[in-house]
Amino acid sequence: MQIKLSSNSNEKTIQIGKIIGENLHAKDVVLLVGDLSAGKTTFTKGLGLGLGVKKVINSPTFTIVKEYQGSNYKLYHLDLYRLNGLGDDFDLEEYFESDGVVVIEWPHQIEELIPSNYLEVDIRRIDENNREITITSHGKYYEDLLQRLNLC
C-alpha cells in the first residue's frame, strides 16, 4: 500500500510524522529516503513528537545514532550517510530487536540487514517549501497501519 502526500512547510512535514509516530510501537522500523535537505530529520522530529519525545531531535550525521526516550518507547534515530559499508565494530542488528522504534536515514547502506517488514518514507524536495512524501508499507503489519491512519 502506498500513500502520496504533499507538504508545503516544515510544520506540515512534522505533523505527518507525528501522526505516524503516534501509531508506532517497539520494534517498528521506518526507513527515510530522500536527498540531502529533503526533510528526513524534520519528519523524524514529528515521529518523536508522536512518540512523546521531549528532547530536541537533530541529525545524528556525525554520531550515526541518537537515542531518545519517548513516553512508552525509545526512538533510535540512525543516519547512515557517512557509513562506508558494514563493519564489525557497529552492530546495527541489535536496534531491530530493541525496545524502541528505529528510524534510519540513508538505509541503502545496510540493505542486507533491513527486516522484511518496514515502513518506507520517501521525501522529495520540490522547492524551498514544498515536499512530496510517499509512504509505502512493506508487510501486512504496515499496510494495516497505513489503512488506520487518517493521512489523506
What is the number of helical segments per DSSP (H or I, 4+ residues)? 4
Query: Uncertain spans, ≥5 residues at pLDDT below 50?
Result: none
Average predicted local confidence, pLDDT: 89
Rg, Å, rounded: 14 Å
Name of the CATH class = Alpha Beta
The computed structural class is alpha/beta
Tally of extended strands? 7
Largest sheet, described in full?
A: 7 strands, mixed
CATH fold description: Rossmann fold
The CATH architecture category equals 3-Layer(aba) Sandwich
Helicity, as a percent range: 10-25%
Element pattern in H and E: EHEHEEHEEEH
- Tell me the span between the first and last alpha carbons: 13 Å
How big a fraction of the residues is strand? 25-35%
Strand order within the widest sheet?
Answer: 1-7-6-2-5-4-3
Q: Specify the CATH homologous superfamily.
A: P-loop containing nucleotide triphosphate hydrolases
Can you tell me the overall shape? globular
- Tally of distinct domains: 1
Which secondary structure elements does this structure contain, and how are they paired or packed?
Blueprint (H helix, E strand, L loop, with lengths): L1 E6 L2 H12 L7 E5 L6 H12 L13 E5 L4 E6 L13 H4 L3 E6 L12 E8 L5 E8 L1 H9 L4
Helix pairs in contact: 1-2
Describe this structure in words.
The protein is an alpha/beta fold. The protein has one domain (2-148): P-loop containing nucleotide triphosphate hydrolases (Rossmann fold). The protein has four helices and seven strands; from the N terminus they run βαβαββαβββα. The protein has helices at 10-21, 40-51, 93-96, 140-148, and strands spanning 2-7, 29-33, 65-69, 74-79, 100-105, 118-125, 131-138. The chain is globular, with a radius of gyration of 14 Å. The two termini are 13 Å apart. The mean pLDDT is 89.
